[in-house]
What we know:
Layout: H1 2-28, E1 31-40, E2 48-50, E3 55-57, E4 69-75, E5 89-94, E6 97-99, E7 102-105, E8 110-115, E9 121-127, E10 130-137, E11 142-146, E12 151-157, E13 164-169, E14 174-181, E15 185-192, E16 194-201, E17 208-214, E18 219-227
Parallel strand pairs: 1-18, 5-8, 7-13
Antiparallel strand pairs: 1-15, 2-3, 4-14, 4-16, 5-6, 8-11, 9-10, 9-12, 12-13, 16-17
Amino acid sequence: MKGAFGSLFVTLVLFLIIQPESTLARQSQATGKVEGVVMLAAKENPVRVGGRYGRPSRSSASSTASTDSVLIWLESSEETSTNSSSGPVILDQKNLSFQPSLLPVYLNGEVRIRNSDPVYHNVFSLSPKKRFDVGRRPKGEFLDVSFDKPGPVDVFCDIHSNMRATIYVMPPSVVTWTKTQSGDSFFIENIKEGSYELKIYALGYQERTIQVDVVSGEAVNVGTLTLSN
């Protein structure tokens, strides 16, 4: 009798140990992923625009598309995202440039616009999505700005006309996002099965949208996608 009870006990223990692992395995197979490559078409006459009145400034022809950041995200047909960040994300000014030049932020999220240069900057935007002006600020000063409308917000410096960045405010239907460089592969993993819109944006290029159907346990390869300017 003791032998039978001991065997039953060992079987029960093994079941309790193995069961969670098998459950996790099934859960990992219940999601899919999206992958591909983004290419940015070469800019024939790159021109940056800045300054209070949109003054054009020179831009080196060596500023090739391969150095540009690309923002990629998935949207569902339902409202899914919330502002889960613990604090403001930072748009810094270093070496007379914005870092990063392309900054995603949650809807109703805050961006800390900070000056880390030993010179004055005056950061502003005339975008319909968000108009603001942080004023002339020396090194070490910052201002937090909130964004309540989805879409791109172009940012400039009134003092240095070659400086430009984009804050992209994510819509409430966003599932997840990632950033890559032109010519590099991207991977978006752990996506629930369903239909989504895959959207791609880069500074100075036309935004692109394609439909993707994610299947559990499979990878959707969208191939190479090219953005035009």
